Amino acid sequence: MAAFSGVDYLDFDSLLSDEEKLARQTARQFVEDQIIPIIEECNREGKFPKQLVPQLGELGFFGANLKGYGCAGMSNVEYGLVTQELERGDSGLRSFVSVQSSLVMYPIYAFGSDAQKDKWLPLLQQGKAVGCFGLTEPQFGSNPSGMLARAVKKGDSYILNGEKMWITSGSIADVAVIWAKTEDDRIRGFLVEKGTPGFKAWDVHGKWSLRASVTSGLSMSDCKIPAENVLPGVDGLKGPLSCLNQARYGIGWGAIGAAMSCYDTALRYAKERKQFQNKPIASHQLVQEKLVWMITEITKAQFLALQVGRLKDLGRVHPSHISMLKMNNVWMALETARRAREVLGANGIVDDYPIMRHMNNLESVYTYEGTNDIHKLVIGERITGVAAFY
Ligand code: TGC
Ligand code: FAD
C-alpha cells in the first residue's frame, strides 16, 4: 500500500514554511516506521510502547516549543504539525507527548525555580524521566476548583493528602505535578517525586479507549514534600489552566491527524471495495457524501488550527480561541471516524484497520482537557460576557 502522503484539498501546504514541513515530515516518518507497525498490538494488549520514549526525546518532540534545556525551540505551528502526525499514529502516543511537554515541562518552565528547571527539564526533554499531571479528582473533573487535595505547611515541608484520578502516565512517572490547596485555600503545584513515602499509583483497567496509554489513579497519604518542590511562580486555578491552554492547543492539531488516518483509510477502501454490478462503492452518491463531509471538515479544521497557531506564535491567542480549536477539531475527528467506519461496513469494526481504535480513543479526547460542553461554555462566556458553568 502506498505510504500516507497527507491530506491537502485547499493547498494548505502553501501556507507552511520549509521548517514547518520538515517538522511534520520528521514526525510522519517516525510514525510510519515505529508506530504503525506495532500500534494495533499495543492497543490489543493494552500496552504503552515505553521503549520509544528515548527516541521521541532524541527527535526533539518533548517540550518542542520551549527554549533552552535541550528543547527544540519549535514554533507553535511546527509543534502542532508534530502532534498532528503523532495522533495519526495513535491518540495515546500524542497524549504521552502532550502530558510530558505541556503539562509537566511547561509548568516547571513557566512557574518553576531555577533549581527545579535545571533538575527536571533536561531529563524530561530527553525522555530519561517521565512526568504526569494530577488535577482531576474522583469527585472533581470539570470543576477542579472544588478539589479536596490539601497541603499543610510543617517546618520547611508540606504534608500532602488527597487523591487524583484518570492521570495519564501516572504509574510510570518519575515526577508528578500535583495541584493541591494550601491553608490559604489557594491552589499550588507540587513536584512529587517517585518513591515519596505515602505516594501510590495504580492503573485503570478495562478501558475501551486509549488502550496504548497508561491511565492511573494516585493517592497521597501524609506525603512530606520539601518546600523547594513547590512551583513558586503561580498560585490559583490559573496555574493548571495555563498548562491546559498549551495541551489543548496540541490536541486541536492532534485530532486532525486521527481524522486524516480515518479519511485516508475510508477513501482507499471505497475505491477498492466493489458492490452491485462490480462497481467500487466510491461510485455511489451516499458514499461520496460521507467522504466529502470528511474532507470538508478536515480542511476547515486545518485552517482553524493554523490560525490559532499563528496567533499563538504572535502572542495574541486567547484561551477561548484554543477552546474553539479543541472543541471543533475533536468533534470533527470523532464524526469523521464514525463515518469512515460506516464506509468500511463490517470490516470497519476490526483492527485490521485503524478506524475503531481512533474512534474509541477520540471518546477520551472529547472528554479530557475540558469536555466538549465545557469548551462551548468557555466560548459562550467570551461572546456573551456571562459565565454559564454554574
Ligand atoms: P474561573 O473563575 O473562570 O478562573 C479561575 C482563574 O483562572 C483563570 N483562568 C485561566 N487562566 C489561564 N488559562 C485559562 N484557560 C483560564 N481560564 C480561567 C481566571 O482568569 C482566574 O484567574 P484569577 O487570577 O482571577 O484567579 O474558574 P472556574 O472555577 O469558574 O472554572 C472555569 C472552567 C470550568 C473553564 C475550568 O475549571 C475548566 O477549564 N474546567 C475543565 C477542567 C479540565 O480541563 N481538566 C483537565 C484535566 S488534565 C487532563 O485532562 C489531561 S488529559 C492529558 C492527556 O492524556 O493528553
Ligand atoms: P464530569 O465533570 O463529571 O462531567 C460529566 C458530564 O457532565 C460531561 O458530559 C460534562 O460535559 C458535563 N458537565 C459537567 N459540568 C457541566 C456544566 N457546568 N455544564 C454542562 N455540562 C457539564 N485529568 C488529569 O488531571 N490529568 C490527566 O493526565 C488526565 N488524563 C486523562 C486521561 C483519560 C483517558 C481520561 C478519560 C481522562 C483524563 N483526565 C485527566 C481527566 C479529565 O480531564 C476529566 O475526565 C474531565 O475533565 C471531565 O471530568 P469528569 O470525567 O469528572 O466528568
What does it look like?
With 390 residues, the protein is of the alpha+beta class. It folds into 3 domains: 12-126, Acyl-CoA dehydrogenase/oxidase, N-terminal domain (Butyryl-Coa Dehydrogenase, subunit A, domain 1); 131-229, Butyryl-CoA Dehydrogenase, subunit A, domain 2; 238-384, Butyryl-CoA Dehydrogenase, subunit A, domain 3. It is 51% helix and 14% strand. A hairpin with a 3-residue loop joins strand 8 and strand 9 (279-280). Helix 1 (18-45) packs parallel to helix 3 and helix 4 packs antiparallel against helix 5. Bound molecules: 3-thiaglutaryl-CoA and flavin-adenine dinucleotide (FAD).
Mean pLDDT over the residues = 98
The CATH topology label of the largest domain is Butyryl-CoA Dehydrogenase, subunit A, domain 3
Listed once per kind, the bound small molecules are:
3-thiaglutaryl-CoA, flavin-adenine dinucleotide
Named CATH architecture of the largest domain: Up-down Bundle
In short:
With 390 residues, this protein is α+β, with helices and mostly antiparallel strands. It has three domains: 12-126, Butyryl-Coa Dehydrogenase, subunit A, domain 1; 131-229, Butyryl-CoA Dehydrogenase, subunit A, domain 2; 238-384, Up-down Bundle (Butyryl-CoA Dehydrogenase, subunit A, domain 3).
Question: Which helices and strands, and how do they pair?
Answer:
Layout: H1 18-45, H2 53-58, H3 76-89, H4 91-111, H5 114-126, E1 131-134, E2 150-154, E3 157-168, E4 175-181, E5 187-193, E6 199-203, E7 215-226, H6 238-272, E8 274-275, E9 279-280, H7 285-313, H8 319-343, H9 355-367, H10 372-384
Parallel strand pairs: 1-4
Antiparallel strand pairs: 2-3, 3-7, 4-5, 6-7, 8-9
Helix pairs in contact: 1-3, 3-4, 3-6, 4-5, 4-6, 6-7, 6-8, 6-9, 7-8, 8-9, 8-10
The structure holds 3-thiaglutaryl-CoA and flavin-adenine dinucleotide.
Flavin-adenine dinucleotide is lined by residues 99, 133-136, 141-142, 166-168, 210, 215, 364, 367-369, 371, 373-374, 377, 389.
